[in-house]
Amino acid sequence: MRKGILALAVILVAGVASFWITRRCLVPSTPTSWLCQEYGLSTSDVERLRDLERSYGSRCGPYCDAMCEANARLDTLTLGSGSITPEIRAAIAETDRIRTETRIAMLEHFYAVAAQLPPDKRRGYLLKVLPLVIDSCSRR
Amino acid sequence: MNPDNQLSSLLREWKKVPEAGTGFRREVWSRIESRRHASRSEGWLSLFALPRFATVAAAVAVVVGVVAGNLQARSAGESLYLRSVDPLSLHAHGR
Protein backbone atom coordinates (compact mmCIF):
# COMPACT_ATOMS: atom_id res chain seq x y z
CA MET A 1 0.00 0.00 0.00
CA ARG A 2 2.83 2.38 0.81
CA LYS A 3 4.32 1.78 -2.64
CA GLY A 4 0.97 2.59 -4.23
CA ILE A 5 0.61 5.82 -2.28
CA LEU A 6 4.14 6.85 -3.18
CA ALA A 7 3.56 6.10 -6.85
CA LEU A 8 0.29 8.06 -6.81
CA ALA A 9 2.03 11.01 -5.18
CA VAL A 10 4.80 10.97 -7.82
CA ILE A 11 2.21 10.84 -10.61
CA LEU A 12 0.28 13.80 -9.18
CA VAL A 13 3.48 15.78 -8.79
CA ALA A 14 4.40 14.98 -12.41
CA GLY A 15 1.01 16.22 -13.60
CA VAL A 16 1.16 19.44 -11.60
CA ALA A 17 4.79 20.07 -12.60
CA SER A 18 4.02 19.62 -16.31
CA PHE A 19 1.11 22.06 -15.94
CA TRP A 20 3.26 24.76 -14.31
CA ILE A 21 6.22 24.33 -16.64
CA THR A 22 4.01 24.48 -19.75
CA ARG A 23 2.18 27.50 -18.46
CA ARG A 24 5.40 29.29 -17.55
CA CYS A 25 6.91 28.63 -20.97
CA LEU A 26 3.83 29.56 -22.98
CA VAL A 27 2.40 32.55 -21.12
CA PRO A 28 3.10 35.53 -23.41
CA SER A 29 5.32 38.20 -21.92
CA THR A 30 3.57 41.08 -23.70
CA PRO A 31 0.09 41.63 -25.12
CA THR A 32 1.52 41.82 -28.64
CA SER A 33 3.19 38.40 -28.20
CA TRP A 34 -0.19 36.92 -27.34
CA LEU A 35 -1.67 38.47 -30.48
CA CYS A 36 1.12 37.04 -32.61
CA GLN A 37 0.95 33.58 -31.04
CA GLU A 38 -2.82 33.39 -31.19
CA TYR A 39 -3.13 34.50 -34.82
CA GLY A 40 0.09 33.06 -36.23
CA LEU A 41 1.56 36.36 -37.42
CA SER A 42 4.82 36.91 -39.26
CA THR A 43 7.71 39.14 -38.13
CA SER A 44 6.63 41.99 -40.44
CA ASP A 45 3.09 41.78 -39.06
CA VAL A 46 4.54 41.95 -35.54
CA GLU A 47 6.39 45.19 -36.36
CA ARG A 48 3.25 46.78 -37.80
CA LEU A 49 1.24 45.73 -34.77
CA ARG A 50 3.84 47.16 -32.40
CA ASP A 51 3.57 50.50 -34.21
CA LEU A 52 -0.21 50.38 -33.89
CA GLU A 53 0.06 49.52 -30.18
CA ARG A 54 2.49 52.39 -29.56
CA SER A 55 0.26 54.87 -31.34
CA TYR A 56 -2.81 53.60 -29.48
CA GLY A 57 -0.94 53.67 -26.18
CA SER A 58 -0.15 57.34 -26.61
CA ARG A 59 -3.88 58.00 -27.12
CA CYS A 60 -4.93 55.79 -24.17
CA GLY A 61 -2.95 57.60 -21.52
CA PRO A 62 -4.81 60.91 -21.82
CA TYR A 63 -8.20 59.13 -21.76
CA CYS A 64 -7.22 57.27 -18.62
CA ASP A 65 -6.05 60.49 -16.94
CA ALA A 66 -9.12 62.41 -18.05
CA MET A 67 -11.42 59.70 -16.69
CA CYS A 68 -9.57 59.66 -13.36
CA GLU A 69 -10.00 63.42 -13.04
CA ALA A 70 -13.64 63.37 -14.10
CA ASN A 71 -14.48 60.58 -11.66
CA ALA A 72 -12.60 62.27 -8.83
CA ARG A 73 -14.61 65.43 -9.44
CA LEU A 74 -17.84 63.42 -9.54
CA ASP A 75 -16.91 61.65 -6.29
CA THR A 76 -16.31 64.99 -4.56
CA LEU A 77 -19.55 66.50 -5.84
CA THR A 78 -21.77 63.51 -5.06
CA LEU A 79 -20.36 62.99 -1.57
CA GLY A 80 -20.73 66.67 -0.76
CA SER A 81 -24.35 66.89 -1.81
CA GLY A 82 -27.69 65.39 -0.80
CA SER A 83 -29.40 65.91 -4.13
CA ILE A 84 -28.59 66.12 -7.83
CA THR A 85 -27.27 69.55 -8.66
CA PRO A 86 -26.50 71.05 -12.08
CA GLU A 87 -22.79 70.55 -11.28
CA ILE A 88 -23.35 66.84 -10.66
CA ARG A 89 -25.29 66.52 -13.91
CA ALA A 90 -22.45 68.26 -15.76
CA ALA A 91 -19.85 65.99 -14.10
CA ILE A 92 -21.79 62.86 -15.09
CA ALA A 93 -22.12 64.18 -18.64
CA GLU A 94 -18.36 64.75 -18.70
CA THR A 95 -17.59 61.15 -17.69
CA ASP A 96 -19.98 59.96 -20.40
CA ARG A 97 -18.29 62.16 -22.96
CA ILE A 98 -14.85 60.76 -22.08
CA ARG A 99 -16.18 57.21 -22.10
CA THR A 100 -17.73 57.73 -25.57
CA GLU A 101 -14.51 59.14 -27.00
CA THR A 102 -12.55 56.28 -25.46
CA ARG A 103 -14.88 53.70 -26.96
CA ILE A 104 -14.57 55.27 -30.40
CA ALA A 105 -10.77 55.28 -30.13
CA MET A 106 -10.82 51.64 -29.02
CA LEU A 107 -13.02 50.66 -31.94
CA GLU A 108 -10.74 52.46 -34.41
CA HIS A 109 -7.77 50.58 -32.97
CA PHE A 110 -9.53 47.21 -33.10
CA TYR A 111 -10.44 47.72 -36.76
CA ALA A 112 -6.84 48.71 -37.52
CA VAL A 113 -5.49 45.59 -35.76
CA ALA A 114 -8.07 43.34 -37.43
CA ALA A 115 -6.97 44.66 -40.83
CA GLN A 116 -3.45 43.29 -40.10
CA LEU A 117 -4.71 39.80 -39.34
CA PRO A 118 -5.37 37.03 -41.84
CA PRO A 119 -8.88 37.51 -43.29
CA ASP A 120 -10.20 34.28 -41.79
CA LYS A 121 -9.10 35.35 -38.28
CA ARG A 122 -10.51 38.89 -38.26
CA ARG A 123 -13.97 37.98 -37.12
CA GLY A 124 -12.61 35.85 -34.27
CA TYR A 125 -10.45 38.73 -33.07
CA LEU A 126 -13.36 41.21 -33.23
CA LEU A 127 -15.59 38.82 -31.30
CA LYS A 128 -13.03 38.83 -28.49
CA VAL A 129 -12.49 42.59 -28.31
CA LEU A 130 -15.85 44.14 -29.25
CA PRO A 131 -17.43 43.33 -25.86
CA LEU A 132 -15.02 45.91 -24.41
CA VAL A 133 -16.66 48.58 -26.49
CA ILE A 134 -20.23 47.45 -26.77
CA ASP A 135 -20.75 46.34 -23.17
CA SER A 136 -18.05 48.35 -21.44
CA CYS A 137 -20.37 50.16 -19.02
CA SER A 138 -22.23 47.19 -17.53
CA ARG A 139 -19.02 45.25 -16.85
CA ARG A 140 -17.76 47.82 -14.37
CA MET B 1 -9.25 -33.87 48.70
CA ASN B 2 -7.74 -36.61 46.59
CA PRO B 3 -6.26 -35.78 43.13
CA ASP B 4 -9.19 -37.38 41.28
CA ASN B 5 -11.68 -35.19 43.07
CA GLN B 6 -9.53 -32.13 42.42
CA LEU B 7 -9.36 -32.97 38.74
CA SER B 8 -13.12 -33.58 38.54
CA SER B 9 -13.78 -30.26 40.18
CA LEU B 10 -11.48 -28.50 37.70
CA LEU B 11 -13.11 -30.20 34.72
CA ARG B 12 -16.53 -29.15 35.94
CA GLU B 13 -15.39 -25.54 36.06
CA TRP B 14 -13.92 -25.78 32.57
CA LYS B 15 -17.29 -26.71 31.06
CA LYS B 16 -18.76 -23.36 32.03
CA VAL B 17 -18.74 -21.20 28.96
CA PRO B 18 -18.63 -17.45 29.75
CA GLU B 19 -21.47 -15.51 28.27
CA ALA B 20 -20.77 -12.86 25.70
CA GLY B 21 -21.38 -9.30 26.84
CA THR B 22 -23.97 -7.06 25.21
CA GLY B 23 -22.88 -5.64 21.91
CA PHE B 24 -20.27 -8.36 21.39
CA ARG B 25 -21.74 -9.48 18.09
CA ARG B 26 -22.14 -5.93 16.88
CA GLU B 27 -18.52 -5.18 17.65
CA VAL B 28 -17.31 -8.28 15.86
CA TRP B 29 -19.23 -7.43 12.67
CA SER B 30 -18.08 -3.85 12.84
CA ARG B 31 -14.46 -5.00 12.98
CA ILE B 32 -15.04 -7.40 10.09
CA GLU B 33 -16.56 -4.56 8.02
CA SER B 34 -13.76 -2.14 8.72
CA ARG B 35 -11.14 -4.71 7.73
CA ARG B 36 -13.06 -5.48 4.55
CA HIS B 37 -13.16 -1.75 3.81
CA ALA B 38 -9.45 -1.38 4.39
CA SER B 39 -8.61 -4.21 2.01
CA ARG B 40 -10.90 -2.69 -0.68
CA SER B 41 -9.19 0.69 -0.52
CA GLU B 42 -5.82 -1.02 -0.50
CA GLY B 43 -6.99 -2.72 -3.70
CA TRP B 44 -7.14 0.34 -5.98
CA LEU B 45 -4.05 1.93 -4.43
CA SER B 46 -2.06 -1.21 -5.05
CA LEU B 47 -2.73 -0.72 -8.80
CA PHE B 48 -0.31 2.20 -8.73
CA ALA B 49 2.38 -0.07 -7.38
CA LEU B 50 2.33 -1.98 -10.68
CA PRO B 51 5.10 -0.48 -12.88
CA ARG B 52 3.16 -0.63 -16.15
CA PHE B 53 0.04 0.96 -14.67
CA ALA B 54 2.08 3.63 -12.93
CA THR B 55 3.95 4.46 -16.17
CA VAL B 56 0.72 4.84 -18.14
CA ALA B 57 -0.85 6.89 -15.35
CA ALA B 58 2.22 9.15 -15.20
CA ALA B 59 2.13 9.65 -18.98
CA VAL B 60 -1.56 10.54 -18.82
CA ALA B 61 -0.92 12.96 -15.94
CA VAL B 62 1.85 14.69 -17.90
CA VAL B 63 -0.28 15.00 -21.05
CA VAL B 64 -3.22 16.36 -19.07
CA GLY B 65 -0.86 18.81 -17.32
CA VAL B 66 0.57 20.02 -20.63
CA VAL B 67 -2.87 20.49 -22.22
CA ALA B 68 -4.21 22.28 -19.16
CA GLY B 69 -1.10 24.46 -18.96
CA ASN B 70 -1.44 25.37 -22.64
CA LEU B 71 -5.09 26.33 -22.25
CA GLN B 72 -4.38 28.34 -19.11
CA ALA B 73 -1.48 30.16 -20.79
CA ARG B 74 -3.68 31.12 -23.74
CA SER B 75 -6.41 32.34 -21.43
CA ALA B 76 -3.91 34.36 -19.38
CA GLY B 77 -2.48 35.87 -22.57
CA GLU B 78 -5.92 36.85 -23.78
CA SER B 79 -6.75 38.52 -20.45
CA LEU B 80 -3.44 40.38 -20.59
CA TYR B 81 -4.19 41.65 -24.09
CA LEU B 82 -7.76 42.71 -23.29
CA ARG B 83 -6.65 44.60 -20.20
CA SER B 84 -3.93 46.33 -22.22
CA VAL B 85 -6.33 47.67 -24.88
CA ASP B 86 -9.02 48.88 -22.48
CA PRO B 87 -7.96 52.23 -21.05
CA LEU B 88 -10.98 52.34 -18.77
CA SER B 89 -10.02 48.97 -17.31
CA LEU B 90 -6.50 50.28 -16.71
CA HIS B 91 -8.11 53.27 -15.05
CA ALA B 92 -10.25 51.03 -12.87
CA HIS B 93 -7.26 48.94 -11.80
CA GLY B 94 -5.17 51.99 -11.15
CA ARG B 95 -7.70 53.54 -8.75
DSSP helical segment count of chain B:
4
User: Radius of gyration of chain A in whole Å, from Cα?
Assistant: 23 Å
- The stretches of 5 or more residues of chain A where confidence is low (pLDDT under 50) are none
- Count of DSSP helices of chain A? 5
**For this structure, what is the CATH class of the largest domain in chain A?**
Mainly Alpha
Please indicate the count of domains of chain A.
2
Number of domains of chain B: 1
Form type of chain B: rod-shaped
> What is the arithmetic mean of pLDDT of chain B?
81
Q: Most extensive chain contact? A: A-B, 50 and 38 residues
Total number of beta strands of chain B: 0
Mean pLDDT of chain A: 88
Q: What amount of the residues of chain A lies in strands?
A: under 5%
Radius of gyration of chain B: 35 Å
Secondary-structure-based class of chain A equals mainly alpha
| Distance between the amino and carboxyl termini of chain A | 53 Å
Helical fraction of chain A: over 70%
- Helix and strand element order of chain B: HHHH
Shape of chain A: flat
Q: What do you see in this structure?
A:
The complex is a heterodimer of chains A (140) and B (95). By secondary structure, chain A is mainly alpha-helical. Chain A has two domains: 1-31; 40-134, Four Helix Bundle (Hemerythrin (Met), subunit A), CATH 1.20.120. Chain A has helices spanning 2-26, 31-39, 43-79, 86-116, 119-134. The model of chain A has no long low-confidence stretch (mean pLDDT 88). Chain B has one domain. Chain B is 82% helix and 0% strand.
Task: Quickly describe the structure.
With 140 residues, chain A is mainly alpha-helical. Chain A is 84% helix and 0% strand. Chain B has one domain.
Question: What's the arrangement of secondary structure elements?
Answer:
The complex is a heterodimer of chains A (140) and B (95).
Chain A: H1 2-26, H2 31-39, H3 43-79, H4 86-116, H5 119-134
Chain B: H1 3-14, H2 24-47, H3 51-84, H4 87-94
